[in-house]
From TrEMBL:
GO biological process: organophosphate metabolic process
Positions bound to Mg(2+): 47
Name of the protein described by the UniProt record: alkaline phosphatase
InterPro entries, per the entry: Alkaline_phosphatase, Alkaline_phosphatase_core_sf
Native species: Candida verbasci
Length: 73
């Protein structure tokens, strides 16, 4: 996970910086290291907390985009 860093963002966004550019999602970092990833949640997998593992969105309400990113992850 050497290439990942903390970036300032805005409330309501998922894994994007203040300018709307994608930053490393947690799952991307682990996947790049060869880890297999599974999520167990008690909410929707499109909710912001699990979505930060695999997606990028300028609006956390963009559930269609988040769902597509999950499938393609």
């Amino acid at each position: 996970m050497d290439n990942y860093f903390i970036a300032q963002t805005v409330n309501g966004r998922i894994s994007v910086d203040v300018d709307g550019r994608p930053v490393g999602a947690i799952g991307e970092a682990l996947k790049s290291q060869g880890y297999k990833i599974g999520l167990v949640v008690t909410t929707s997998v499109f909710h912001a907390n699990p979505a930060v593992w695999y997606s990028h969105a300028n609006n956390r309400g963009s559930q269609d985009s988040i769902a597509k990113q999950m499938v393609l992850f």
